[in-house]
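Troubleshooting log. The previous structure file for this entry was overwritten by mistake, so regenerating from the original sequence record. Sequence copied from the archived sheet and checked twice against the printout by T.R.
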Amino acid sequence: MIDKMMKADPLTDAATTAGITLAYYAMPDFVRSRLLRYFGKMALLGLSTGQVIVTANATLPNDLDSLRQFVDDSDGETLKKTAGILAGAGLASTIAVLAGEKYIFNRGERKRAAGVSFPHTKQGLVLAVLAGGLIYVLEKSEQNRD
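Regenerated output below.
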């Protein structure tokens, strides 16, 4: 059974990603309490993390071998530069995600104030289709490469 779980199925992963994305972004339309939204979103992030772990386990041994090979073949200066680049990319992506999340939420709230029904859900549908489609394309291309 664990072997079946570890094999990436692009369609299943795309559908799971789309469903979690829709639920995450539509939540403000259905749950007005900030505290309940917080717990709901944490549960969805836990599901998403579990999905990524199960999917990543299929390629983890090859990824670890590649990482070991890189570390063994690199000198200290290359490792320092790589660590700096990764830290900078991590910081920049965190800032971008925070700004994007704030923008998406505030946009939905502005539309709600203007009388639009289910504004967060409508945004969530678009984001879910984009996220699910991206996952499907990436995983399918990964399968075709193997």
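The chain has one domain: 2-145. Archived copy saved in two places this time.
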